[in-house]
Design a protein that fits this description.
It comes from Rhizobium leguminosarum. It contains 14 helices and eleven strands. With 318 residues, the chain is an alpha/beta fold. The chain has two domains: 170 residues, Rossmann fold; 89 residues, Magnesium chelatase subunit I, C-Terminal domain (Helicase, Ruva Protein, domain 3, Orthogonal Bundle), CATH 1.10.8.80.
């Protein structure tokens, strides 16, 4: 596979996902970038904005195993990871694997579970393995978490701690679609049966584990000039000295942006990164990794606004 074939594959995958998810092209691109960059995605938006449908559609476009966990207040870490159960017939412990043992994991409404259950994913997301009773179990190189959360309801929810948020490559904010898109969605559904589900969308699984590995090998060969790397570092370091930010982004954040830039370049059929790639990815990669100062919150500033102000101040390479 060369860069041209890879670009055509991504275009075809976009088209397959678009059969079910309409009006979210930018969000779809960022999810695909996260998958090929080896990262994870946190999707935030009000109910009914196709967050779960997006995850299911992405999994349908990939020939990979998919599982879903509905996070609830009574969910325990063992419900996520699994547990060793004693078999009285064999007098041995037997591992009953939890839903985390998959390729694509949908952590639906992750902020509804208490912190001890949320933290069950920390090792899995960072190391792609889980340790149960002293034994390490690999989750494989394709393991990807797409978590959703509802920002409206606060009762019965538990905000994700910074350490957990830093495991996500992107935080994607899903808003309501445009008027024309909503009309198109309703027009499409008007011709379908009331019990129609995702299987009727006809999404073809185009990305196999082998294709994912080939794509990542191409991405590893993408060159980032020192000027691009310096630009990324300068932007990340600027978050640590900005008066509107109490805690800035980490070195892991800078590395995550660089990885995403290489993927975006490959998606465009380029073997080099551009400042435009950095500017397109900085906000979704950092909006969840910074903590605003109390004065900025009182003034009503948002992380997106603060990050865009930093991009306006830091000179881009030419």
């Amino acid at each position: 596979m060369d860069l041209g074939e890879f670009r055509n594959l991504i275009a075809a995958v976009r088209g397959e996902i678009g059969k079910a998810v309409q009006g979210q092209d930018a969000i779809i691109d960022l999810v695909l970038i996260s998958i090929f960059a080896g990262g994870h995605c946190l999707v935030e938006g009000p109910p009914g904005t196709a967050k779960t449908l997006l995850a299911r559609s992405v999994s349908a476009a990939m020939a990979l195993q998919y599982r879903r966990i509905q996070f609830t207040p009574d969910l325990m870490p063992g419900d996520v990871l699994g547990v060793n159960l004693f078999n009285f017939q064999t007098n041995q412990f037997h591992l009953t694997k939890g839903p985390v043992f998959t390729d694509i994991l949908l952590a639906d409404e992750i902020n509804r579970a208490p912190p001890k259950t949320q933290s069950a994913l920390l090792q899995a997301m960072n190391e792609r393995m889980v340790t149960l009773d002293g034994t390490d179990y690999s989750l494989g190189p394709d393991f990807f978490v797409l978590a959703t959360q509802n920002p409206i309801e606060q009762q019965g929810t538990y905000p994700l701690p910074e350490a957990q948020l830093d495991r996500f490559l992107f935080k994607l904010v899903v808003d309501f679609p445009s008027r024309d898109t909503e009309i198109a969605i309703l027009s499409k559904h008007a011709t379908q049966a009331l019990k129609s589900d995702l299987r009727n969308a006809g999404i073809r699984p185009l990305v196999t584990s082998a294709a994912l590995a080939e794509g990542r090998a191409l991405i590893d060969a993408i060159h980032l000039d020192n000027t691009i790397l310096t630009y990324i570092v300068d932007l990340v370091r600027a978050t640590r000295s900005d008066p509107d930010i109490l805690y800035g982004a980490s070195t892991r954040a800078a590395d995550a942006v660089a990885s995403a830039v290489r993927v975006r370049a490959a998606f465009e059929g380029r073997d080099y990164g551009l400042p435009d790639d950095v500017q397109a990815l900085l906000v979704p990669a950092l909006r969840h990794r910074i903590v605003l100062s109390p004065s900025a919150e009182i003034d009503g500033r948002t992380p997106d606004e603060v990050l865009r102000n930093i991009m306006n101040r830091v000179d881009a390479p030419r």
